[in-house]
Amino acid sequence: MKVAVYNQEGKEAGDITLPKEIFEVPFNADLVHQVMISQTANARQVSAHTKNRGEVRGGGRKPWRQKGTGRARAGSTRGPIWKGGGVSGGPRNDKNYERTIPQKMRRKALFMVLSQKVKNNLLVVLDDMNMEGAKTKAMAQMFKKLPVASASRLVAYNNGDKKVFLAARNIAKTGVSETRNLNVVDLLDYKYVVITKDGIKEIEKVFITK
C-alpha cells in the first residue's frame, strides 16, 4: 500500500510503500480490546490501602474484664467496630491486577491498529522531522501545515532523536513516543500518528525482523 509523504511545509514530497505485514492486517476488535485491557491493567498503580486490625497501632490491653461489667466481652480496641480500629473489607495494595499477553498477540494487535490508521487516512508520513534547537514553536507551526492541525496526534520519533521529544512534549493534544515503544493504548488515545520514513523502517526492523 502506498501513502503520500509530506515535507515539513505540509506539501506532498512523494510517496512510500508500506510493508503489508504491518499495515495491511485485518482488524480483530476482540484481540485489540484484550491487549488494551492487559496493558492498562499492567500499568495500574494500586495505592489505596487500609490497615486491618492486626496492622493498626495499639489494642494490646484488654479494655475491661471479661465478666461482671454488663458489657459485651472485648479483647482489643483495634477491631473494626471501634473508633481507630482496623478496617474490614477495605482496599488493599497487595492486590495483583497484572495480566500476561503473549508477545505475538501484542504485536498482532499493534499491527491491526496501525492498519486501521492507514485505512482511515490517519497516518501522516514525513520525509524528515528535523527540529533545530528543539523549538516547540517550530513543531507547533509544522502541525498547522499538516492534516493533523485540528486533532490529537501521536508523534513517533526514532531512538536517540531527543530534539523531537523536547519540541513536541508540551503541545496540547500531542503525545510523543519512541518508534520502538509504540503500543496499542497510545495509538488508540490519539487520532493521528505522525512518523517519518525512517520511522517506518524502524517499525519494520523492530517488530518484523526480530
UniProtKB/TrEMBL annotation:
Q: Where is this region: Disordered?
A: 43-97
Q: Pfam families in the record, alphabetically?
A: Ribosomal_L4
Which key words tag this protein in UniProt?
Ribonucleoprotein, Ribosomal protein, RNA-binding, rRNA-binding
The keyword Ribosomal protein appears for this protein = yes
Biased composition annotated in UniProt, kind: Basic residues:
59-70
Q: Known InterPro entries for this protein?
A: Ribosomal_uL4, Ribosomal_uL4-like, Ribosomal_uL4_dom_sf
Membrane-spanning residues: none
Top-rank taxon, per record: Bacteria
- Provide the GO MF annotations for this entry: rRNA binding; structural constituent of ribosome
Which PANTHER family does this one have?
A: 50S RIBOSOMAL PROTEIN L4, LARGE RIBOSOMAL SUBUNIT PROTEIN UL4M
**Subunit-structure text:** Part of the 50S ribosomal subunit.
Function of the protein: One of the primary rRNA binding proteins, this protein initially binds near the 5'-end of the 23S rRNA. It is important during the early stages of 50S assembly. It makes multiple contacts with different domains of the 23S rRNA in the assembled 50S subunit and ribosome. Forms part of the polypeptide exit tunnel.
* Alphabetized NCBIfam families for the sequence: rplD_bact
Family recorded in the similarity comment: Belongs to the universal ribosomal protein uL4 family.
Q: What is this protein called?
A: Large ribosomal subunit protein uL4
Q: Per the UniProt entry, what species is this protein from, by scientific name?
A: Candidatus Staskawiczbacteria bacterium RIFCSPHIGHO2_01_FULL_41_41
Q: Which gene encodes it?
A: rplD
